[in-house]
Design the sequence.
């Protein structure tokens, strides 16, 4: 079980290559970084090394993970101070000449070691009115054009890693803002509902008040850390802000948007989708033409 | 027992993947108070890793498709070991379950006329899988999660169930759990319990499964007196990553092949044409020309790359053994030469990302190196097809933890649909059972005390064993002795090793606090894994033939006259795991006629 028991994985000096992680150990009462040195193996990710430390040196090291493939969003932590998924951070991308620091996400209270209390996020989720579809077509099914589902599908890629929440300055060091702020993950969630072709609810008032959309000042830090490369600010937050502000809560305009979008004939949508420039415009910057017309 | 935190519900659901959440939505809607308990956070269950899609004969791409064809494909894929009634219900009901998911907010990829797009998959005659790129499982779990949250269902996250509780008559009436965060116990009283705990893959070394796949539900059921069925049938998915070593086992979705990908050996040969079994010869293309026409014209026969998974996994295994493998001991999966980069990135975004970020491989220009990986347990709790009731009153099971639906081999895409169809049915069955109870059953307090004391024992006894080391040795043993290709000698050796490992697992010592202590959790998970490993190994010894996810080198052929008519049933008899043969009930004529029909 010691690092010296194995033969080197690469030739050279004779000593097997090793790597040192400085992992934050502790709980709500406090803690400190501790250095752990284990074998280094080619092609590994940070989570592999954390697991080896767990198996060989610190059995009780608390860490969350599930898929080890960047699909579940469980293994979020700060690697050398940068918010990352540990399972998708290759060791080869890091400088291993000095200890690599691994600390829990800062925006959430520590439970133990790398595990934080993310219940804030689940509480926000409960405050968002759920999907409410209109009636289906005559045969009991729904029809939607790919063009119309594209933008909401981008938001459905969210793996709830909460890294965007972790970096958002509104709550990162401001616990007091949490009760009145949903955070980027949940702006993405609201956007996914608002831009769902079948949804009929209006959540703009809620965004303005309880969800605190106004507190976001579009620094884009959230977008930078999203492992799913969701354009959180450009495609979710900015369009939501425009809807909240521009329409000034005009129910008629809102209703017009919903109805027009669903009534748009499929061939037209298909044609629109085939024009890359227009699609780019639509997805990145503004509402569909149906809205800007009113 | 009054010392423990205690909750009372009508229905307790163990597991928050697709089956558990779908069951809970059903029970809550029926007016039963419902709790869901899960080992991880909500939304992280293994369902999230499902990639390719949900199989359902919607007929939106191929109107010729029907439940009858889906039923036939499923039974043939399962090598006829399936519980035919489950296969029938599944084929009949999955289209409604997919449409229901859509009405709850899921956004599937679309056909040009705005319907749900369906993709090709192995063993399915028509393009049948409703999907969202290659992250369909994420879509399913998030949709169900939001639905459950909106319904106000109570979710106990990061809580591991360590024992089911029974009343003096033997009926299940609750469970003992352990809060992972605090290390404290919690008692659930419930009129009915639904197991939806997923699979057992963590018992093998190379697996697609997450840390949660430790067979908890299988073991809980066994300990509570329930029967398991088909435990010898383990699906090795033909395409797992094999390099870098640390990524070995990660799933590479079958959608790569469904969307046109092919398998090649070291010499660049499309080798699957050499592995078409007699059983599938009528429906499998035997020339490259015919295979390539099939994607657009279903009157041609299917490419051999889309044979059922057991066939493809054995073929990959054989190529590597014959010395025609890739540098890291697998074979090549090639879509780069078959489809445009835009098509690949659009249809397979997470595969693109996974290979790029973990292996520095660009799948739009390079081939992937892949090999078999332990993926799915066909076997599980023996249930009644219509209600998912186990052989123990009060205990239900749905999803991967239940057995029967998939027979000896599951078709890709039939898992997500299984979760929805039987999650819902288990919910209905459990509520009906709970309503029918005259008196709420009361658990035996002694059971709680005994199980809690045993769990805490790991802190006290100062044994010599490290749980991580015991786990690694278990995985090595199962990988090498109870893998894709089995022999009597290996299986018997495995039983000896399991005896040893049982002893070592009991001698595990855990250090540190009770709060969020992974070594302790693993010590407890090992108990489940060892029970499951034994069930699988003993059932594998008993089935002296090769069929689906059970291949015996010493009995290489199927034995339709004897074993083809039997399921292996595993149960605990006075503390000893036993295997008995159980005849498969005869199929009604109208279903048998579907199987006799031409392809
Ligand atoms: S853009 Fe808004 S939500 Fe995103 S990090 Fe900045 S302030 Fe937070
Ligand atoms: S939006 Fe991106 S960063 Fe935020 S939780 Fe989802 S996946 Fe993570
Ligand atoms: S373990 Fe699932 S994202 Fe890292």
Sequence:
């Amino acid at each position: 079980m010691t690092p010296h028991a194995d033969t080197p994985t690469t030739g050279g000096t004779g000593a097997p290559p090793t790597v040192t992680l400085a992992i934050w150990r502790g709980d709500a009462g406090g803690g400190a970084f501790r250095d752990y040195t284990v074998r280094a193996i080619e092609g590994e990710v940070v989570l592999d090394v954390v697991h080896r430390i767990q198996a060989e040196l610190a059995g009780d090291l608390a860490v969350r993970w599930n898929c080890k493939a960047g699909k579940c969003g469980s293994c979020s932590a700060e690697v050398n101070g940068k918010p990352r998924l540990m399972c998708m951070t290759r060791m080869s991308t890091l400088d291993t000449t000095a200890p690599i620091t691994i600390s829990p996400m800062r925006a959430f209270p520590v439970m133990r070691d790398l595990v934080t209390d993310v219940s804030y996020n689940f509480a926000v989720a409960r405050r968002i009115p759920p999907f409410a579809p209109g009636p289906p077509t005559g045969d009991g099914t729904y029809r939607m054009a790919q063009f119309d589902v594209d933008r909401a599908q981008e938001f459905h890629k969210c793996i709830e890693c909460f890294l965007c929440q972790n970096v958002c300055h509104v709550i990162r060091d401001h616990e007091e803002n949490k009760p009145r702020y949903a955070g980027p993950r949940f702006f993405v969630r609201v956007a996914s509902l608002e831009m769902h072709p079948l949804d009929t609810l209006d959540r703009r008032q809620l965004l303005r008040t309880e969800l605190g959309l106004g507190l976001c000042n579009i620094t884009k830090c959230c977008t930078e850390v999203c492992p799913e490369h969701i354009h959180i600010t450009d495609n979710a937050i900015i369009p939501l802000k425009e809807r909240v502000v521009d329409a000034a809560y005009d129910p008629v305009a809102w209703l017009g948007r919903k109805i027009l979008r669903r009534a748009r004939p499929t061939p037209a949508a298909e044609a629109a989708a085939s024009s890359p420039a227009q699609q780019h415009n639509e997805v990145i910057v503004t509402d569909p033409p149906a809205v800007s017309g009113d | 027992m009054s010392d423990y935190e205690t909750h009372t519900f009508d229905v307790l659901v163990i597991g928050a993947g697709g089956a558990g959440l779908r069951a809970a939505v059903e029970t809550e809607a029926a007016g039963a108070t419902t709790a869901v308990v899960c080992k991880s956070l909500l939304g992280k269950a293994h369902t999230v890793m499902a990639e390719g899609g949900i199989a359902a004969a919607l007929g939106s791409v191929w109107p010729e498709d029907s439940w009858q064809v889906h039923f036939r494909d499923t039974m043939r894929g399962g090598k006829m070991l399936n519980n035919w009634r489950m296969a029938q219900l599944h084929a009949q009901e999955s289209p409604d379950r997919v449409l229901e998911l859509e009405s709850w907010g899921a956004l599937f990829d679309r056909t040009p006329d705005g319907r749900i797009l369906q993709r090709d998959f192995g063993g399915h005659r028509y393009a049948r899988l409703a999907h969202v790129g290659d992250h369909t499982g994420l879509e399913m779990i998030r949709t169900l999660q939001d639905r459950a949250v909106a319904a106000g269902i109570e979710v106990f996250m990061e809580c591991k169930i360590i024992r089911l509780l029974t009343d003096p008559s033997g009926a299940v009436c609750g469970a003992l759990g352990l809060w992972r965060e605090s290390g404290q116990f919690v008692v659930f009283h419930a009129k009915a319990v639904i197991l939806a705990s997923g699979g057992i893959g963590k018992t093998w070394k190379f697996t697609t499964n997450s840390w949660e796949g430790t067979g908890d539900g299988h073991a809980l059921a066994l300990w509570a007196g329930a029967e398991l069925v088909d435990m010898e049938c383990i699906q090795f998915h033909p395409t797992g990553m094999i390099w870098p070593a640390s990524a070995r086992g990660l799933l590479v979705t079958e959608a790569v092949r469904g969307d046109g990908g092919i398998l090649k050996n070291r010499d660049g040969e499309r080798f699957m044409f050499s592995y078409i079994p007699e059983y599938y010869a009528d429906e499998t293309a035997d020339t490259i020309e015919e295979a390539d026409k099939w994607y657009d014209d279903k009157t041609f026969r299917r490419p051999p790359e889309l044979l059922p998974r057991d066939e493809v996994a054995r073929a990959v295994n054989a190529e590597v053994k014959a010395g025609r493998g890739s540098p890291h001991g697998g074979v090549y999966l090639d879509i780069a030469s078959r489809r445009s980069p835009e098509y690949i990135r659009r249809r397979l975004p997470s595969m693109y990302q996974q290979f790029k970020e973990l292996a520095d491989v660009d799948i739009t220009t390079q081939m992937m190196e892949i090999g078999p990986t332990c993926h799915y347990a066909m076997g599980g709790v023996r249930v009644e097809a219509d209600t998912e009731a186990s052989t123990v009153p009060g205990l239900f099971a749905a999803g991967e933890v239940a057995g029967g639906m998939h027979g000896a081999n599951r078709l890709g895409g039939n898992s997500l649909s299984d979760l929805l169809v039987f999650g819902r049915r288990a919910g209905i069955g459990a509520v009906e059972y709970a309503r029918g109870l005259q008196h709420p059953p009361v658990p035996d307090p002694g059971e709680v005390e005994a199980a809690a004391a045993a769990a805490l024992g790991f802190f006290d006894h100062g044994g010599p064993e490290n749980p991580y080391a015991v786990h690694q040795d278990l995985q090595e043993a199962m990988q090498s002795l109870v893998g894709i290709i089995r022999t009597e000698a290996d299986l018997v050796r495995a039983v000896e090793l399991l005896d040893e490992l049982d002893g070592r697992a009991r001698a595990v010592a855990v250090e540190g606090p009770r709060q969020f202590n992974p070594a302790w959790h693993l010590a407890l998970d090992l108990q489940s894994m060892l029970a499951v490993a034994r069930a699988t190994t003993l059932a594998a010894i008993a089935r002296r033939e090769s069929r689906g996810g059970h291949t015996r080198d010493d009995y290489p052929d199927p034995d339709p006259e004897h074993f083809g008519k039997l399921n292996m049933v595993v149960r605990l008899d006075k503390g000893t795991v036993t295997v008995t043969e159980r005849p498969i009930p005869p199929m009604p004529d109208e279903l048998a006629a579907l199987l006799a029909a031409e392809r």
